[in-house]
Structures are given as C-alpha cells and as structure tokens.
Amino acid sequence: MEPMQEYSVEDLLEAVKAGRVDDMLAILDAGHVDVNAEGKIADDYGFEDSRTALAYACEIGRNDALAFLLSRDSIQVNGKCGNNGVSALMYASQKGHAEVVRMLLDHGGVDINVVGKYSGSRKRSVGVNFDRRNSCRNGESALMYASLKGHAVVVRMLLDHGVVDINVVDH
C-alpha cells in the first residue's frame, strides 16, 4: 500500500480554482488539510493574500466547488480571511456572483451582516449606515460591497433574504 500524499491548503485552492471536485475530495479525505484553513493565493491584481477554499470559490464564482464545500459538515460559512477579514459572502457580493450568493443564502447559517476589519468612510457613497460589528476590515458588509460595485441583483437578494441590518456603520 502506498503512503497517502500530503497535501497543502494551496493544493486545495488550486483544485477550487480549476473546479476539480474529485481532487478537492481527495485532498480533504487525506486528512492533512482543514477545509476551513487559509492558504496563500494571488488575487486578480497579482497580490498574494490568504483565502479559505470557501472564500476563494465564492470570489471566483466556482459554483461546482462551492456546492462541494457547502456539503462538508465542518464548513464554517461565516469565517473571515485575508488581510481585510472578508467573508465568503462578501467576496461573492463584491464580485456580483448572484448564483453564488443564492447558494450561500440557501445553505443557511450565513450571517448577512458580518463585516471585516478596517474602517473607512464609504458609507456616504452608499447613502445607508451599517452596523460596525459586522463589517470587514474596511468596515464594509456584503450589502455595502454589492452596493458599491453596482450589483443590483445581489443587493436585492440580500435585502429580500431578510434580517439585513441597514444600520451598520462603516467607521
């Protein structure tokens, strides 16, 4: 019997990027990688930052990878990652991936009002105040990200889902 290969979180992220669900399963079943662990990967601008597999699938709009990850019992849907402390829902909202947002909301347990680490002054450009306790490092929530990027379909989905705290403040 051959010894099991040791995989890294970066291997999992590469499998997510390629939509190779069989590889994702093999990596996680090997037992060396936590599905919620962060690994380094380059963003759209070539800057390296850390992501969980779930956040990365949401950021790049990989519905196939997302469906697989959401099926894992130990998946943490509200985890924040990267230098900005962004959640999977925030990444999907910022990129306008409406189907990804729908999948997350349908999965349940997703906190629409979660926010990241920084604080800024973007509240004026949105025209709505948001609760700081649930913003990203920049102080934004998923609703703010979708609004700032003009993703009206995602904004409507978040508002229609209910329990959106429109009083979140970006300090």
Automatic annotation (TrEMBL):
ANK repeats, residue ranges: 84-108, 138-163
Name of the protein in its database record: Uncharacterized protein
InterPro entries cross-referenced by the UniProt entry: Ank_repeat_dom-contain_49 (IPR051637), Ankyrin_rpt (IPR002110), Ankyrin_rpt-contain_sf (IPR036770)
Domain of life: Eukaryota
Stretches assigned to coiled coil: none
Family matches, as Pfam families: Ank, Ank_2
Organism for this UniProt entry: Aphanomyces stellatus
Residue stretches spanning the membrane: none
Keywords (A to Z) from UniProt: ANK repeat, Repeat
Classification of source organism: Eukaryota, Sar, Stramenopiles, Oomycota, Saprolegniomycetes
